[in-house]
Specification:
- This protein is mainly α.
- The protein has a single domain, classed as AhpD-like.
- Helices cover about 75% and strands about 0% of the residues.
Length: about 190
């Protein structure tokens, strides 16, 4: 389903469940309109998390919004590569936590495996946004240890609790928004 068709089907959701949809909209609107992070920063985080949730509508919606706010494609692409690194790290950490051996992946160079630590990489995003992207993405994944590591790393680098909380709230909004946007598929199928 293309973007415009998804939008058309999404208009059916508030018509059919006005009160419940209103709760979702109020939740999402508050997250994106309040807090200490700028609208641009929140959109960068939204793009990163949308790539975890694999919500095509969310990717398109937040790309258009980020572009209107002046976020560069390079910033968005860097956020997506951070997402990939964190998802790869999540897989490796899950394996590592279930093993006793100290030398993991001995047949692979540390340089290649360093991909999973994007906080150390320089790019177009500020270190603050790279760290907040790591926090946001790790909270979209089911790894408590990865989430704790991201929080520790952010705090060690001077990020405030308010900044960290805003990043986690963006994650929550994107997870909820992904579910709601997939309702367009439900409406489409139900109406066929």
């Amino acid at each position: 389903m293309d973007f415009k068709e998804t939008q058309k089907h999404l208009t059916q959701v508030p018509k059919r469940i006005r009160e419940q949809y209103g709760y979702y909209r109020a939740f999402s609107d508050e997250i994106f309109s309040k807090g200490v992070l700028t609208a641009q920063e929140k959109e960068i985080l939204a793009i990163a998390v949308a790539h975890v949730t694999k919500c095509i509508y969310c990717i398109r919606f937040h790309t258009k919004k980020a572009k209107k706010l002046g976020v560069s494609i390079e910033e968005l692409l860097e956020a997506v590569t951070i997402t990939g690194a964190i998802e790869a790290g999540n897989t490796l950490y899950a394996y590592q936590e279930n093993r006793e051996k100290a030398d993991y992946f001995p047949n692979h160079s540390a340089d290649r495996l360093s991909y999973i630590d994007p906080a150390k990489k320089e790019g177009v995003l500020s270190k603050k946004i790279r760290l907040l992207t790591i926090v946001a993405v790790s909270h979209a994944l089911p790894s408590a240890s990865l989430q704790q590591k991201s929080l520790q790393q952010a705090r060690e680098n001077g990020l405030s609790d308010a900044e960290i909380e805003d990043a986690i709230l963006v994650t929550a909004a994107l997870k909820a928004g992904g579910a709601v946007s997939h309702a367009a598929e439900l409406v489409s199928e139900y109406n066929d």
